[in-house]
Amino acid sequence: MATTIGNTRQSLVDGMGRTIVNLRISVTDRCNFRCTYCMPADNVEFMPRDKLLSFEEITRIAQIGSRIGIKRLRLTGGEPLMRKDLPTLVRMLTRLEGIEDVAMTTNAFFLKEHAGALREAGLGRLNISLDALDPEKFRDVNRRDCLAEVLEGLKVSSEVGFKSIKINAVAMKKFSETEIMSLIEMGRSDGFEIRFIEFMPLDSDRAWERNKVLFGHEILDLIRKKYELIPVENSLEIGPASEYDFADGKGRIGIITAVSNPFCDHCNRIRMTANGKLRTCLFSTHETDLKELIRGNASDDEIVKTIRDAVLIKEPGHKINLDDFEQPHRAMHAIGG
Ligand code: SAM
Fold first, then answer.
1. What is the enclosing helix (H) or strand (E) of 31?
2. Looking at ligand 1, which residue's alpha carbon is closest to its atom 10?
């Protein structure tokens, strides 16, 4: 039986003194795309459906999190919109006391159909993944031929009133160089912040190599050939991106240097997989099972203690750049990006 833990809002602080305010919630490991950096081309083994947390179970964890300091939620996957009735979950989460913001990361394919309902349900912000504007390159990396549907989803999302739409592009050598400027021009003209994420070792094929990463400084060099950029002060204290404004006042970009210049010191997030495993780092090699607790009728106090204990030993940083780096057993689609 659930017991209450009082109305006083507490904070969730890890062993390094970092205050955790963000919870990323994966709602499914399934995806309609097969991005090379994230999933294998076929024969993917997905989580059995009865192992996925229900909307009620997700909401209970988020509610408990909100009482101990979680303020912001992001729904992700797999592709979150592969899960039916997602606006219902968004509505359940936005109603929680203490939750200031519910956002979503999506490949935009289903947004044409669902953007309006998500907006009405209270979804605040959207991050849309789009690595290439060249249709062939898009198909090569996403292993799906549907750039037009993604662009339509993006357009409909702007039309229904999403104010903050960010576009995430994974930055890979010998791939992204030709796409950077066209993405930037689209962002400047249509009001989207384009964010380049250094390719991280989270691919199922384990084909990641350091020399396949297009580094943040290389991206900046490319952009600076045409535009003057002004760093936004303290952007890393708010999120994972180092942000830059265009000196002509037309827009902003972000660079997520997860490999070349990790921002772990500022990390303020934890994640929960679709089957209810708490991960304190994207690169965690151990997880804490919250599903078993909820399904075993654990009290709120017990769940709080479990979350606090896990957070206390949150990894000081990822080890991509160290000799003892171990790639997590789960690929990105099964963690929740
Ligand atoms: N399906 C949704 C989407 O496409 O946005 C959400 C899940 S996807 C795993 C979330 C984000 O993770 C995307 O922006 C994707 O580009 C990023 N991502 C996946 N694998 C990555 C990798 N190996 N390195 C860097 N970013 C990655």
1. none
2. 337
Alpha helices in 226-299 (DSSP H): 291-295
H or E segment at 309? helix 300-312
Residue nearest to atom 7 of ligand 1 (CA): 77
Burial class of residue 148, CB neighbours in 10 A (0-12, 13-18, 19+): exposed
From the CB of 79, is ligand 1 less than 6 Å away?
Answer: yes
Residue 104 carries which side chain, given as an amino acid letter?
Answer: M
Average predicted confidence (pLDDT) for the chain: 95
Question: Across-strand partners of 286?
Answer: none
Q: Does the pLDDT value for residue 28 go beyond 80?
A: yes
Asked if residues 65 and 307 have their Cβ atoms less than 8 Å apart, the reply is yes
Cβ-count burial of 270 within 10 angstroms (0-12 exposed, 13-18 middle, 19+ buried)? Answer: buried
Going from the Cα of 239 to the center of ligand 1, the distance in angstroms, rounded, reads 16
Among 127, 67, 61, 56, which residue's Cα sits nearest to residue 99?
A: 67
Q: What is the rounded average pLDDT of the residues 292-306?
A: 97
At 207-233, the pLDDT tens digits run 899 999 999 999 999 999 999 999 999
Residue with tokens 């990790």: 262
Quick check: 203 and 196 in contact, CB under 8 A? no
Alpha-carbon gap, residue 19 to 279, rounded angstroms? 16
Quick one: the chain helix, strand, coil %, rounded to 5?
35, 20, 50
Separation of alpha carbons 66 and 312, rounded Å: 17
For the stretch 118-153, pLDDT in tens is 999 999 999 999 999 999 999 999 999 999 999 999
Q: What are phi and psi of 256, to 5 degrees?
A: -105, 100
CA-to-CA distance for 72 and 194, rounded, in angstroms?
Answer: 21
The backbone torsions φ and ψ at residue 219, rounded to the nearest 5 degrees and listed phi first, read -65, -45
Q: Is 28 in the pocket of ligand 1 (CB under 6 A)?
A: no
